[in-house]
Amino acid sequence: MRRIVFGASVAALVGGAATLLAAVYFARQIVVPRTKRIEDLEIRRVFVDAKWGLLIELPSSTRTLSPGLYSLWYAGGSGHACIGSVVAIDDRASTVTRMVERVDSGQLSTARAGIWSGYVYPSPGPLGLPYEDVEIPVENGSAPAWKFAPVDASIAPGVWAIHIHGMGGTKAGALRGVPVADRLGLTSLVVSYRNDGQAPASTDGRHNLGQSEWRDVEAALAYAVDQGAKRIFLFGWSLGGSMALQAAARSEYRRQIVGLILDAPVFDWTSTLMANARAAKLPKPAAALGLRLLESKPLRKITGLHEPLELSALDWLPRAQELQTRMLVLHSENDRSTPFDVSRQIARIRPDLMTLIPFQNVEHTQEWNIDIERWDQAVFSWVAPRE
Q: Which among 6, 238, 295, 337 is most buried, taking Cβ atoms within 10 Å?
């Protein structure tokens, strides 16, 4: 019996240690910024076709077979090309051939691998719209931003759009919302924020899931108001959506915020992180412990956070009745990163505030990419009556 009890105790200790290590890893994966991405998409060949022009052949996958416009980054991020329509599929070779819409930088013809993304515009240049580089004063310095004056400023004078990108990206990811904002006559401000590699880092150098990052949106709001903004729409992508929700609830300028346009937003971090843990096959006890580590003040050294996270203040699902700002949400039903079901539940609870536009068979924050016309039209028709 003693041997059995001893063996069970050792097993419990080993199991407990494994759970703790998994929890620590999970917690740190959430808040530690990623500095590098692996170029894991093989480029089979790049060639010129008499009918289609410049083409690229890639291994076929759900991602590379998706219709629409996408980005291909290569040469350590120094090269970028915009990849367009599928022109051929070879099932035997498991390849897909697509049009190359633009080569913005680098030598695509010599690239052997790259990173697939939804950015499309690596910088303002390809948009063909007038813009200027500006600096927004934030807590630890100044954050670079792009300011776009609308082509026709008479459409909506004094109405601005602030565009906020998602976690692990840069402000270029939010450029996709600028063309429709320009059609609406809005002045656009595309911002950076702490720990995105462009704005000044925070004291701890950790993602705070919007808990502290929203203050950089507050700085952008102050800049816009100082520049003459009377009414402001916030465009938020993923984490940017979470930040927009915080700003709408807490900002000194919340009365100037007249609407939120949110693409695959994080409404509820607890359910989102637990869903990601399940997808990664992380045991529920380890995931739950990981979230407790993020909320623990005594254990901040493990996560590196300057202040613990208050997930209850970031979770809107149990607090949906507290939402006050009208919002348009564009979200894929098959989003594996930010569960669509949370957006659907919020829409059911607050149909008075939220308009939900579902997309199908789309990866996270690539709703615009797969159907630009539908995305732009949804935004245009929702914003126009509210200008």
A: 238
